[in-house]
Design brief:
Length: 474
Amino acid sequence: MTHANAPPAYVRGPAAPFLNSLSVDRPLARYDIAGSVAHAEMLGRAGLLTPDETTALVHGLRTVAREVADGTFPWRDDLEDVHTNVEVRLTEIVGPVGGKLQTARSRNDQVAVDERLYLRATVRDLGERLRALEVALLARAEAELTTPIPGYTHLQRAQPVTVGHTLLAHFWRFDRDLDRLLATASRADVCPLGAGALAGTTLPTDPAWVAGRLGFSRPFDNSMDAVSDRDPLAELLFDLALLAVHASAFGEEIVLHATKEFGFLERTPALGSGSSLMPQKRNPDVAELVRGKAGRAVGDLVALLTALKGLPLAYDRDLQEDKAPVLDAVATATAVLDALVTLVPSLRYDHARLAAAAADPELGATELADRLVAVGVPFRAAHEAVGAAYRDADGVPTPDAILQRLPGAPPAARAALAGGFPSGGRSTHGGPGTAALAAQLDRARARLAERRTSLSSLDRTVGLVEELVHGEPE
C-alpha cells in the first residue's frame, strides 16, 4: 500500500532528480491553478463531477493559490514539477476527490495551456514597459526636436539631422518590437486544454467552453499539434532577441555620444558609475550593460530552437527545456526596459558641442548637389562636381572654398553649407525637416494611443486568470 505522502508512481524512479523541473516551472503555478479551476468547472458542466465535487475542487485550488501567493505552500522536490505539487497538495486539502481533477487531462496539455497563459501576461507586462519607453523617447524627441546633430553612415559624418529625428528613429524600432509582441500574443490565442496526452479523450468534455473561460478566442484544431506546439514561445524569444538587439544599438549610440571624442552627451551620474581606480572617470555603465545583455537574449532563442529541432510528434520530454530560456529572456528584457525607461529622461545633450559638429561643411555636400539638380544639372554630374570641389578645397573645406569651385551653383547653394539644419529642409515624408518632424510626432502620438488600446484588451484577458485563481470580484 502506498503511503499517503509518497509521490505518485509516475514521478518515482531512479532518474527522478534528473527529470525534476520544479526549480524552473514554479513561476507557472498561478497559471496552472487558473487552468485547473477552469478544467474543474468544465468537468462539472459535463456531468463528470457532481456540483459538490466541483465546488470542493475549486475552493481547494483557491486555497492552494493563497498558499503560493503568501509563501506558505509546501513545495516538494520529490513531486518533480509544479503540476504534481499542486495536485498532491489539493488532495491533502480536499481528500480523495482531488484525484478527480486530472480526469480527461494530461500534464502535456496542462503545461501547454500554462505557458500560453504565462505568455499572454508576459506580453502585457513587457508591452507596458515598451510603451513607457516609447513615451520617454517621444518626450525627449520633442524637447530636442530642432537640436542639430550630424547623421552618420559607416560611422562617418554624412548629413545633418536633429536629435529629435534620431530619437524618433529609436521610437519606431521599439514600436515594431511592441507590434511583434502583440502579434505573437494574437497567434498564441488558442487553448490546448482538452488535447490530453496527444489524442483527446473519450469522455464528454468541452474544449471550446474551457477556451472561453480562460479568455482564449478558440480551442485547438489538432490534439497532436496542441501538445507539441511551442511556436508561440519561439516567436516570443525571437521578439525579445530583436528587442535586445535594438536596445543594444541604442546603448552603443549612447556610449559613443558620451565619449570625449564625440562629446554629444553629458556624462551625468545617471549614465553609470565612476572608476574604482581613475578618479576622473564617469562610465556609461547602464548603456554598456544594455548592450551586453543582447547576447543572453539571442542565446535563449538559439537554445529553444535547438531543443525543438527534429522532434517527432507529439510530446517529447525535450519540451521540458522550453521554460528556462523563456524565463531568462523575459527577465533580461524586463531589466533592460526598466533601465532604459529610467535612463532616457536623464539624457542631457551638450548643445554647444552639437552645434559645432553640425556646422561641419561636409554635412552639406548632398544638399549642395540637390541645389545644383534644382537648376537643371543632372544628379550624376552634380555628384561628381561637388565631390571634386570638396576634394580640391585647400585644408578644411570652407563654404567659400567649395563654392569657388562650383561657378554654376545658384545663390541659394550657400544655405546648404551654413551649418546646422535649415528649418525648411528635408521635409519630405519621414524626413528630419521641421514640417516632416511635426507630422512624424503626430503619427507617433497616434501610435501610442493605438498601443494603449491593444494593451487594454490584453488587460481584460489577463484579468480572467485573477478571477479564476481568487474568485469572481465582489
